[in-house]
Design brief:
Elements: H1 4-20, E1 30-34, E2 43-46, E3 55-56, H2 69-82, H3 90-94, H4 97-110, E4 114-118, H5 121-132, E5 137-142, H6 147-156, E6 160-164, H7 169-179, E7 185-191, H8 203-213, E8 221-226, H9 241-245, E9 252-256, E10 266-270, H10 272-281, H11 283-286, H12 293-306, H13 309-331, E11 335-336, E12 343-347, H14 351-363, E13 366-367, E14 369-371, E15 382-386, H15 393-404
Parallel strand pairs: 3-13, 5-6, 5-7, 7-8, 8-9
Antiparallel strand pairs: 1-2, 4-10, 9-10, 11-12, 12-15, 14-15
């Protein structure tokens, strides 16, 4: 009864979102997965589409590790040993051996002193930025940074925030000159891979600017990247944008266990003192249960696969399939964004045509994500395809064959 008035307000807001074209609406519900066979990768069944099997081209599972037998077995074994949930936050009694082992392995993987896991990459950013930003800090952020960074900065209440045009290093340097001496600390934060475009931040130039201008601030410039789409999908050994860029000077790396590693959760790696401080100050870590011990064990096994010859073979196949798709788009006359990441945006530049093509793909049992105005500026509409190491040449060729029929 108390919600009657509120429900009218919410109904009006939902109607407004629908009219703007940003209402997400009913979700597709995956009801089953059919293993790959006869030269094709896995197919997915969806509620409401009986007797149809879909090719999933909109998943973040870049290596297909969530379906690997060893990863599943590691999670099952740990669940039998430790139960299905931690039962407490970390500082009370929620820290299990797999949590500690995973943090150590993540730090070693990235060549950092220490690691720290959270419930998700979103909560990682939301937890650490407000803990490192105060009223004497200026935050500098790329205009295309992920929503989690935007909201974490809002929550932080810095002295000031500066937004530079996407990957514009001249403007970034101008900002650093402008604010020199005006604050104690600068937090310079960027995505590693930008999720809507699949391009990457110029980390070498960012680190160089931070080094040159850091002397102008009492507490220096701290560089932070969210490489959730990079780790496990980018770089020769899957270490992400820092490896691809050959840049080791980034202070804090944030990433996820829920994309290429195929499990769940987020993490940071950095100096031991930074991690020690954040365990005491980051509210999303202190007051939230961690991922389950079983998820941590599955993540360890996924990381071991990634950091092996088998993992490098999977990454090589992933790059080959991404290249095959991108080259196929170009031959069909479509516009693409240059880059080697398995996010392959098909630039459409028209909202109506984007929606029509997404529907056409689904009619032909291909799942892909349309990004339309006003989520992106008018004229920047796209369909985001995401390649997985589970995809085969036959899968990629099928996508291209279907697109070739669209007019």
């Amino acid at each position: 009864m108390g919600l009657d008035k509120l429900n009218k307000v919410l109904e009006a807001e939902l109607k407004y979102l629908k009219e703007k074209g940003v209402l997400k609406g009913e979700e597709d519900v995956i009801t089953g997965i059919k293993p790959g066979e006869n030269g094709y990768g896995p197919r997915y069944t969806i509620r409401g589409y009986e007797n149809k099997e879909f090719l999933r081209m909109n998943s973040n599972s870049y290596l297909g590790l969530s379906l690997k037998k060893e990863v599943i077995e590691a999670e099952e074994e740990a669940a039998r040993k430790y139960g299905t949930g931690p039962g407490a936050v970390r500082f009370i009694s929620g820290t299990f051996l797999p949590h500690v082992e995973l943090e150590q392995k993540l730090a070693q993987f990235h060549g950092k002193e220490a690691g720290m896991i959270f419930g998700s990459a979103y909560s990682t950013i939301m937890g650490i930025l407000p803990s490192l930003i105060d009223g004497k800090t200026v935050v500098i952020s790329d205009e295309l940074n992920h929503n989690c960074i935007i909201n974490a900065i809002r929550l932080s209440r810095p002295k000031d925030k500066k937004i530079y045009p996407h990957n514009d290093m001249d403007e970034l340097e101008s900002i650093l000159r402008l604010i020199s001496g005006s604050c104690k600390r600068v937090i310079l934060v960027t995505d590693g891979i930008f999720s809507m475009r699949g391009d990457h931040a110029p980390l070498g130039e960012i680190a160089e600017l931070a080094e040159v201008y850091g002397e102008n601030f009492e507490e220096g410039i701290i560089t932070i990247i969210d490489d959730s789409h990079g780790v496990g999908a980018f770089g020769k050994t899957g270490r992400g944008t820092t490896e691809y860029s050959g840049e080791s000077r980034i202070d804090i790396i944030v990433a996820t266990l829920g994309k290429a590693l195929g499990v769940n959760g987020g993490y940071i790696v950095s100096d031991a003192r930074v991690v020690e401080y954040l365990r005491e100050r980051a509210p999303f870590y202190i007051y939230s249960n961690p991922i389950t011990p079983a998820e941590a064990s599955a993540s360890i096994r996924a990381l071991e696969i990634l950091d092996s010859e088998r993992g490098r073979e999977m990454l090589s196949h992933l790059r080959n399939m991404s290249r095959r798709l991108k080259e196929g788009f170009t031959k069909l006359g479509f516009e693409v964004v240059e880059g080697e990441h398995p996010i392959v945006p098909l630039i459409i530049r028209d909202t109506k045509r984007t929606a029509e093509l997404v529907n056409f793909l689904k009619e032909n049992m291909i799942l892909a994500t349309g990004i339309k105005y006003p989520v992106v500026p008018r004229g920047s509409e796209e369909i985001r395809f995401q390649v997985s190491a589970d995809h085969t040449e036959a899968d990629i060729d099928y996508v291209l064959e279907v697109l070739g029929k669209f007019s």
